[in-house]
């Protein structure tokens, strides 16, 4: 056989080996071995995998002068570069040992076996030195060239007679250098490509989990209920390839979106045995057995299920379920996605208790705010009303009603959320009393877009800002000024702006005004800080207040409040 013919034959076999390795690595059972991990189980798998390919490299060679022109090195070198010395040595022992056993003490058996073993060890040592940089085609090329050159040298040294060894090397050296070098390069490229594909796939799944979590987290702030469960199920069903999504508590179906929604109805008791089993045991279930799902409906299209428990504080409070059908097959990836989502959902449900504590703290802060406001404002207001009793009794009567309304609204903060109209009534009562005290020095301008009156807002969120504007912005100026309030709807949110043309806020104080531990000063701003932090606690940090102020020209405070139907106050 000529050298060119041998080269062509080996290259053909290189293509077959690389294609076979690619197909094998793409199989689901191999992917589930998590091929890129370094655990004992996976190391053993890699030793067997690369060793087996090394054995195939022997059989894919050609018999030449009582020896074999082979492709063992391409698999053993790649194994060492990928898995390190243990994998390189293990694969070398399998492939080299097999070469010796098929021709014990043959013409080149010892030299070929030892060379294969040393090539695996050498590649493993390079992996230790280069780490992740070892899996480069340039490294594989150089190692294959060096390894096979060493292989030819060992054949010359260990094979006798020397004349036959020289004749063998003349024929097989160039084909084996080309075949094993090209094979190692292609093999490294295949593994890198598969690794990159898996990483991108894992990244896509992670992105889906974060996208779903980011979308549903706002609903879970109110806890696990029918409203939040329905929203969760709809979001997940829209983003994942599943036949249906269900969310349950420990007794009933809270939401079901997708196939089977004609009999898996929200509000109904749990009917599937698998769900009851998860709630009882706390162990997740992945089943492709329709009977294990246990739906009693004779036409139920659901054939497989992934059911994972939702926990809160260590206790099981419900389940998240992905259902498959003939059109949507469940798989291990969806199983991992479900487990990841429930972990994040469970954390959010536990945070609900913290949010309750935050709301209680905010309520205590309101009481503290009232204690700061009420005594001074009450005494000053009563003195003003007393001065009107003789000179303008009708005006005094109106002021008493305003003071009564203001105090009643101010004290009744236990409702948490109120209608915007109620807050505006309190603002108007406050301004009426202040205008009675200071006359034309206190002017006001209130503009509210029609349709905003029923918007649910936290109590005592606007009135303290108006009071701050009057107290610190207008009353410090001899000629007073104007305090204004504009409210409108924009992009599904209530846009609120409180402004004045008073003395403004000192620049050195402005930057720290909203901090929780802001130092007391002439402009203490307790009402402003309280309103700001309550908005952040309830709606998130993105809904805090923005302040613009210029000394001697005035201050503008703006913020937005999203519409939350679950926060609508009860009719009073």
Poorly predicted parts: 517-523
Query: Could you give a short account of the major beta sheet?
Result: 5 strands, antiparallel
Span of the ends, CA to CA: 101 Å
What is the 3D shape?
elongated
Output the strand order for the largest sheet.
4-3-7-6-5
What is the C-alpha radius of gyration, as a whole number of Å? Answer: 38 Å
Average pLDDT level = 82
Total count of strands: 14
Number of helices in the DSSP assignment: 17
Helix content: 55-70%
- Helix-and-strand structural type: alpha+beta
Beta-strand content bin: 5-15%
Keywords:
572 residues; five-stranded antiparallel beta sheet; 17 helices; 15% strand; elongated
Topology:
Blueprint: H1 3-26, H2 28-32, H3 40-59, E1 62-64, E2 67-69, H4 72-83, H5 85-102, H6 109-130, H7 137-158, H8 162-220, H9 226-239, E3 244-248, E4 253-258, H10 273-281, E5 285-287, H11 290-293, E6 304-312, E7 315-324, H12 332-391, H13 393-411, E8 417-419, H14 420-438, E9 442-448, E10 456-458, H15 463-474, E11 481-490, E12 493-500, H16 507-510, H17 526-539, E13 546-550, E14 554-562
Parallel strand pairs: 9-11
Antiparallel strand pairs: 1-2, 3-4, 3-7, 5-6, 6-7, 8-10, 11-12, 12-14, 13-14
Helix pairs in contact: 1-8, 3-4, 3-5, 4-5, 4-6, 4-7, 4-8, 5-6, 6-7, 7-8, 8-9, 8-12, 12-13, 12-14, 12-17, 13-14, 14-15
């Amino acid at each position: 056989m000529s050298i060119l013919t041998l080269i062509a034959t080996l290259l053909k076999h290189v293509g077959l080996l690389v294609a076979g390795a690619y197909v094998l690595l793409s199989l689901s059972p191999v992917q589930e071995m998590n091929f890129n991990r370094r655990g004992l189980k996976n190391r053993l798998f890699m030793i067997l995998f690369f060793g087996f390919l090394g054995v195939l490299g022997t059989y894919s060679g050609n018999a030449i002068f009582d020896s074999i022109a082979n492709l063992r090195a391409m698999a053993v070198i790649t194994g060492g570069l990928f898995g390190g010395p243990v994998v390189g040595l293990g694969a070398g022992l399998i492939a080299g040992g097999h070469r010796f056993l098929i021709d014990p003490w043959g013409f080149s058996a010892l030299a070929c076996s030892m060379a294969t073993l040393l090539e695996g060890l050498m590649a493993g040592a390079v992996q230790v030195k280069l780490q992740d940089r070892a899996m480069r085609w340039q490294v594989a090329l150089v190692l294959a060239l060096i390894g096979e050159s060493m292989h030819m040298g060992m054949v010359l040294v260990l094979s006798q007679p020397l004349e036959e060894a020289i004749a063998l090397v003349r024929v097989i050296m160039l084909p084996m250098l080309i075949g094993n070098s090209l094979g190692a390069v292609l093999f490294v490229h295949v593994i890198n490509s598969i690794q990159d594909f898996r990483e991108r796939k894992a990244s896509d799944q992670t992105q889906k989990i974060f996208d779903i979590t980011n979308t549903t987290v706002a609903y879970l702030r109110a806890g696990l209920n029918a409203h939040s469960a329905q929203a969760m199920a709809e979001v997940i069903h829209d983003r994942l390839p599943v036949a249906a999504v269900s969310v349950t508590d420990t007794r009933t179906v809270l939401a079901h979106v997708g196939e089977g929604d004609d009999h898996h109805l929200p509000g109904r008791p749990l009917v599937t045995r698998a769900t009851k089993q998860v709630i009882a045991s706390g162990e997740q279930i992945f089943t492709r057995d329709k009977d294990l799902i246990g739906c009693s409906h004779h036409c139920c299209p659901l054939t497989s299920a992934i059911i994972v428990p939702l926990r809160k504080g260590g206790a099981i409070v419900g389940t998240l379920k992905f259902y498959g059908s003939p059109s949507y097959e469940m798989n291990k990836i969806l199983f991992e996605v479900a487990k990841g989502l429930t972990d994040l959902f469970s954390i959010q449900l536990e945070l609900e208790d913290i949010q309750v504590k935050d709301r209680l703290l905010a309520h205590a802060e309101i009481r503290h705010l009232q204690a700061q406001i009420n005594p001074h404002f009450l005494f000053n207001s009563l003195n003003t009303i007393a001065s009107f009793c003789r000179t303008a009794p009708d005006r005094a009567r109106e002021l008493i009603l305003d003071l009564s309304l203001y105090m009643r609204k101010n004290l009744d903060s236990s409702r948490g959320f109120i209608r915007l109209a109620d807050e505006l009534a309190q603002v108007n009562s406050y301004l009426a009393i202040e205008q009675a005290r200071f006359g034309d020095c206190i002017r006001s301008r209130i503009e509210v877009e029609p349709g905003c009156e029923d918007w649910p807002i936290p109590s005592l969120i606007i009135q303290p800002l108006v009071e701050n504007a009057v107290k610190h912005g207008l009353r410090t100026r001899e000629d007073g000024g104007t305090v204004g309030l504009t409210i409108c709807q924009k992009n599904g949110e209530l846009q609120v702006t409180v402004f004045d043309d008073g003395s403004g806020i000192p620049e050195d104080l402005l930057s720290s005004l909203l901090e929780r531990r802001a130092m007391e000063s002439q402009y203490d701003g307790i009402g402003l800080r309280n309103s700001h932090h309550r908005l952040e606690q309830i709606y998130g940090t993105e809904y805090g207040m923005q302040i613009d102020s210029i000394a001697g020209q005035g201050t503008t405070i703006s913020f937005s409040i999203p519409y939350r139907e679950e926060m609508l106050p009860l009719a009073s």
